[in-house]
């Protein structure tokens, strides 16, 4: 016997189990909000901008030199996160981090055909994020002269501490919105699962559906009067 579910049956199920759906959604929101606001450590971000451009006395621009500088950014991205730079940063700031841990806090972003790239640092301490970003940039600018025998790095913009720094993650509102969607999906899924597993016969229609036989009659319940 095939069972078909109509749109009306779906709405009936949702109406019947709406309290369960709302309860699971509320639980998901409470869990997400608690984790986002009280358990997850806020992470702050700070960035510097670095220009790769060969310093020359004349004002004439060399297109080949510009393209060479652009191509060098990929190499510089590797050098910045290497022990040759980061070990000096760790010593200067007296950080309790390994080179691998500090490297994991640093992200290098560059735009196509641009001689400028950004160095971004994420840390749970906004002041330390600024200090690391500026120290890595200045150390790289100083050390690259000996490492590559070039003098083509300038710091365009230093990282600065904001008056009221805002963490970049976690994002409580986004997490709560996701929790609402997940809670609704879980609640609706559980509602239909419970409805599918419920074999209780409630009326004549359920008997006809279950037995696939026409209903010939019914016996009414007669209350006894003393």
Automatic annotation (TrEMBL):
UniProt keyword Acetylation, yes or no: no
Ranges where the Tyrosine-protein kinase G-rich domain occurs? 139-193
Alphabetic keyword roster? Cell membrane, Membrane, Transmembrane, Transmembrane helix
Entry keyword annotation includes Lipid biosynthesis: no
One Gene Ontology cellular component annotation held by this UniProt entry: plasma membrane
Transmembrane segment boundaries: 20-40, 173-194
* Primary location group: membrane
Query: Which Gene Ontology molecular-function terms are recorded?
Result: protein tyrosine kinase activity
Please give, as recorded in its UniProt entry, the membrane topology of this protein.
Multi-pass membrane protein
Question: Which ranges carry the Polysaccharide chain length determinant N-terminal domain?
Answer: 3-93
Q: Where in the cell is it found?
A: Cell membrane
Q: Which InterPro entries match?
A: Bact_polysacc_biosynth/exp, GNVR, LPS_length_determ_N
Q: Which family does it belong to?
A: Belongs to the CpsC/CapA family.
Write the protein's name.
Chain length determinant family protein
Q: Please tell me the species this chain comes from.
A: Peribacillus simplex
